[in-house]
Amino acid sequence: MAALTFVLVALACSPAHAEEKKGFFKKLFGGGSEQPPPPPAPAPKPAPAPTPSKTASKPASSTSGKPPRVIITTTKPGGGTKKVELNKPTTSSPPKTEAPKPVEAKDVTSSARRGESEFKADDEDRATVKSDSVGTLPANGGWEIVKIGGRDYVTADSIRNFYNPLYGFNTFRLQGNHFWLGSSKLILKASIGSQEMLINNIKFILSFPVQTSNGKVLFSRLDLCKLIDPVLCPSHIQNPEYFDTVVIDAGHGGHDAGARGVYGHEKDFALKMAMMVRTALMQRGFKVILTRSNDTFLTLGGRVAIANQTPKSIFISLHFNSGGAAASGIETWALTPQSAAATISRGGGYNMSGVTGNKQDSANIALATAVHANVISRFKFVDRGIKRAQWSVLTGCKRPGILFEGGFVTNAKECLLVASDTYRQQVSAAIGDAVVNYRKALSTAMAKQ
Questions:
Q1: CA contacts within 13 A on the Cβ side of 412
Q2: HSE (CB half, 13 Å, CA atoms) of 76?
Q3: pLDDT tens, 395-422?
Q4: d(CA 53, CA 163)
Q5: Which of 90, 92, 223, 298 has its CA 20 to 30 A from that of 175?
Q6: In 164-272, which ranges are E strands?
Q7: What is the pTM of this model?
Q8: Is 251 within 8 Å of 322 (Cβ atoms)?
Q9: What are phi and psi of 47, to 5 degrees?
């Protein structure tokens, strides 16, 4: 299956736009010729390694002024349902959802692999995001909303109907716990009760599990607004700023070695990768700022400050993973949306009031998708998914930003690749192409700024 590709489409997703942009789905998300994984390069034999330290957006609104038709279905205790249609021309108005009251954001102090300080956000970088925390639905969708446990869910039928003019779905099936929505352009797979979702075989981790009610498949409204819509219609991400600069952050440094791998330390591999990504991006016409260019320690707040002080930029933090000897694969992290929890327990917990980086939610997930899909499609590594966490380098970032994990240095085979210049060069080229794809995908929205 070709890697997932951004499509430039109008918010209404009309058949005319689908016809105009034929082929972009494959082209923009890294389809086309694929490079095989590089052969493992000789790596130095490891010195006796010490024991690893275990320290640790809104979719565009309609410009027509016409409120979208929304049907809310409430499940009653006895199993019955009550349907209410909102936004009738003369009798009702759009539902208002109160955002949680602002509370003081707390530092995350849980111990974890990345180093304890990695999960502590500087107070100056924390900020409450005052917005509709469940997200604004794409306009004119005829959305059917079902409330379960006080949370809004949108029916898969609504999603199919809204995006059908673009994608031409011919498969819509629930078999057991498995759900498929598909066409020749896009295949979405999910399982009831699971937070994992595949779009063209690229794994995403949803904020909430997929549900069913009265035979209908339901996705949380938050996931529709903060993940599905930005990925399927990136050209209508709201207010993206044009960028010509990429801030590349080599994780760790100095006394903070990061993960201790079979053939070296994470900090050294991250710096070497950062230098190669810098070259790849410059070859593609971008300006590049490195948060560090040598083996020095830089605070997490200092890294964020560099990104925030760099105009017309996006931010990519490069890391390598650690775990058991068998753990393997690539994963990419975007910031947890407001009113959702991180994918893993050590990733910052529940994001109650929102943080600075949530202003870029849609751009964050679009950038993560572009990079992750392009790398996975070329190297066929284990796809660990596009995940969510409140890492400190993401919470305070005012620019679109992601954290990319390029493999496990605690896995002998993967660390051999990570230690190879050939592997790092090819991953760097994939990241460079992904950034080009991302900017193309958002070009229509950027032009409106």
A1: 4
A2: 6
A3: 999 999 999 999 999 999 999 999 999 9
A4: 47
A5: 223
A6: 171-175, 178-182, 187-191, 196-199, 202-205, 211-213, 216-220, 245-250
A7: 0.77
A8: no
A9: -75, 165
